[in-house]
Amino acid sequence: AGDWKALSRQIDLAKEKLHLPEDCLVISCYEAGRDGFWIHRMLEEEFGITNLIFDSSSIEVNRRKRRAKTDK
């Protein structure tokens, strides 16, 4: 957590592997949680990454769909 240099290296490796230009737009998203919005600000301000935050409860799911029991 908080290893921003490693994140930068991983992004660079992904661009290289996918044959993308170094200046291509990077877009990320993550679920807003207890870590707050500092990650969002860091990604956008320090890395120039377009970052989208979503609330997991906003994702539409079929509540009637049968789920596997997990209380065994």
Characterize the structure shown:
This is Transposase. The protein is an alpha+beta fold and about 70 residues long. It has a domain at about 25-60. About 35% of the residues lie in helices and about 15% in strands. The chain has helices at about 5-15, 40-45, and strands at about 25-30, 50-55. Strands 1-2 form a two-stranded parallel sheet. Strand 1 (about 25-30), helix 2 and strand 2 (about 50-55) form a beta-alpha-beta unit. It starts with a helix and ends in an 18-residue tail after the last strand. The model has no long low-confidence stretch (mean pLDDT about 85).
Number of beta-strand segments: 2
Unreliable parts: none
What is the first-to-last residue Cα distance? Answer: 33 Å
Strand content: 5-15%
- Write down the overall mean pLDDT: 85
Please tally the helical runs, counting DSSP H or I stretches of 4 or more residues.
2
> How would a textbook summarize the main sheet?
2 strands, parallel
Element-level helix/strand string: HEHE
Shape: elongated
How large is the radius of gyration? 17 Å
Spatial order of the strands in the main sheet?
A: 1-2
